[in-house]
TrEMBL record:
GO molecular function, one term: hydroquinone:oxygen oxidoreductase activity
Organism lineage: Eukaryota, Viridiplantae, Streptophyta, Embryophyta, Tracheophyta
PROSITE patterns referenced in this protein's UniProt entry, alphabetically: MULTICOPPER_OXIDASE1, MULTICOPPER_OXIDASE2
Family per record: Belongs to the multicopper oxidase family.
InterPro entries, alphabetized: Cu-oxidase_2nd, Cu-oxidase_C, Cu-oxidase_fam, Cu_oxidase_CS, Cu_oxidase_Cu_BS, Cupredoxin, CuRO_2_LCC
Protein name in the entry: laccase
Organism: Artemisia annua
Amino acid sequence: MASSSVFVFGFVVALLSLSLRTSSAADFICLFQRLTPWADGPEFITQCPIRPGGEWWNANPIDVENAALASGGAPADADAYTFNGWPGDLFNSCVSNSTLNVVPGKTYLLRIINAALNTQFFFKIANHSMTVVGADAAYTNPFQTDVLVLGPGQTHDVLMTANQSPGLYYMTASPYATAVGVPFNQNTTTGIIAYGNARQATRPILPVIPAFNDTTTAFSFSSNLTSLVTSPFWSPVPQTVDENMFMTLGLGLTPCNSNQNCSGFFGQRLSSSMNNRSFVLPSQVSLLEAVFRNISGVYTKDFPDTPPLIFNYTDVNNSFNQNILFAPKSTSFGNYNPTTDTQKFNLVNPQERNTFGVPVGGWAVIRFRANNPGVWYVHCHLDVHLPWGLAMAFLVENGGTPEPTLPPPPADFPKC
């Protein structure tokens, strides 16, 4: 079924369990947008999109998306990955790198953002370790590692000490991809850590790059991050819940039109869903404005809180197809068991994130407090999945006092 489906919350605490066959990232738009949802940004969710034409609109990415949607397949692969706009000298036609000059003995704070649309990355610095101190703008307990894993839209704050011999050291970002049979760009992008007195003629040292499907490394990193509960903005995780949801994230196929040749698997169109619902964006008004002005026919409130059918949600051979801060309490592999897996929950210092990864063939459980009125987009953070329908929205209603009440849109709010 395709629709603009929302799930309605009062001011409650919700527990959300997600299950997925291939690793992915999910996102609640957006972070700390408290009582200003009209400026949140997602097109046709809280705002109307930027209109075609003008200096703030570019046709090139739209052309890529339209070509994929017309074919029923996936968009063309990227030509290269980049560090701050530079592919690095491992890319055939590039001789320039993004370079960070360092002074021996000094410690540097690196804020690393995965701004790619469809790729998860391993990040490494040759011969250097890093200490993670933040994730998605929330403090973490210091965690020492030689590799980071970042899904699209995720951020990490790390400390790096320039404690190696003078020289040139590669920073690398290489893809982490687990979908079987799906092509992807296998290039590695590089930047350079350059000690001040290093000779430019010196060949940079390259780190050991993880295999593209190294789920063990990815899971080890993501499962070891915890929140710093003594930080000034720490919000304790709710100990009890009012609402429970079980959500399956699925990729599948829909029939190709009779007069069309589709480039998806088996000649069909690629599609995706949450609990067997494929999300379709409105085209005339945003969901938030439709809610605020009580406009009918724009969305439905019947998003199911469990899958319509019970099956093996993580079997690869199966034929079935942010403004809320949340705490990923636990992740693991296989099917989620609400009886035994609750023993794995971290209710003391779980990560606080706005984008989290669901491990390949596994699940993630999150808990959040619905205390921010508005319509919040819940979607896969691999952008290729959005036009296929891998999304839904939470409608958080007004509270019982004036403070948690959705304000009206600004007078100059753009029209669709």
